[in-house]
Amino acid sequence: MTMKIGIFDSGLGGLIITKAISEFLPEYDYVYFGDTKRLPYGNKSHDEVSEFTREAVDYLFRRENCAIVVIACNTASSRALRQIQQEYLPANFPDRKVIGVLIPASEVASTYEKVGVLATIGTVASNAFQIEINKLNPNTQVFQNPAPELVPMIENGDLSKAEPLLIEYLEPFMDKNLDALVLGCTHYPMLKQEIGKIMGPKVQIISQEEIIPQKFKDYLVRHPEIENKLSRDANIKILVTKPTENMTDLVKKWFGKMGINII
Q1: In this structure, are 193 and 246 located in the same domain?
Q2: Which of the following is catalytic: 7, 12, 17, 73?
Q3: FRET pair for 69, CA 20 to 30 Å: which of 177, 180, 224, 228?
Q4: Which tens digit of pLDDT belongs to each residue from 176-212?
């Protein structure tokens, strides 16, 4: 039986990752799952994030027949991924895989001396970026700051207040002489240009949609037992748990005329 690639996010931010991967590897079939009903995940408890992420992965495996799920949410990657890999998969789906987006970004960040991480409250509190970056390079200095209001603003599609918010959230980085800044949430690439303008040309912006497609391709090459199961009809299916105002426009803009299924 042929199987699909699942991509999960707390809302619509993961569509950026889906677009990037599906353009880089267009032959495969993709199912996107956005938990728009319960977003944002960044201000929720560790247990809630773990439970919601497990439910989504379970749905993608059981109902959508995915062979692999990419957790395109940094909060979920930092708080739920390890538990899913170590406990849920061996007990339920030992022949399938779940991977996240946090480590690939950390690998790039670890090549710099001074790195900032702009992320959700949950991701910053988990310290996951600092841990992963310093595992790879103990000499990299990591500075973190949460940006709690960006995700709801982006999901609502109203970016009129983006600039004052970004100035506030990026201010703590300004005296750190950063070499690079990690956009530690998959929603933030929508504000990449504005962030780059505020940070200035000397700071390299590390944006996950630029990194993940090649990393994902490399992963499939290393795991032919997964890659060989994947169907190749070049389809993309989009699922959300609640319709949002901005959703149809965003999907139309990025994917053309495509239906959205509410589950």
Answers
A1: no
A2: 73
A3: 180
A4: 999 999 999 999 999 999 999 999 999 999 999 999 9
Rounded to the nearest angstrom, the gap between the alpha carbon of residue 62 and the centroid of all alpha carbons in its chain is: 22
φ, ψ for residue 114, nearest 5 deg = -125, 120
pTM greater than 0.90? yes
Is 66 catalytic? The answer is no
The full 3-state SS of the chain, as one line of letters, equals: CCEEEEEEECCCCHHHHHHHHHHHCCCCCEEEEECCCCCCCCCCCHHHHHHHHHHHHHHHHHCCCEEEEEECCHHHHHHCHHHHHHHHHHHHCCCCEEEECHHHHHHHHCCCCEEEEEECHHHHHHCHHHHHHHHHCCCCEEEEEECCCHHHHHHHCCCCCHHHHHHHHHHHHCCCCCCEEEEECCCHHHHHHHHHHHHCCCCEEECHHHHHHHHHHHHHHHCHHHHCCECCCCCEEEEECCCCCCHHHHHHHHHCCCCEEEC
Q: Please report which confidence band the pLDDT of residue 95 belongs to, taking 50, 70 and 90 as the band edges.
A: very high
* Residue 137 belongs to domain with CATH number: 3.40.50.1860
> Is 185 part of the annotated catalytic residue set?
yes
Catalytic residue among 70, 71, 151, 185: 185
**Boundary of a domain, candidates 188, 208, 228:** 208
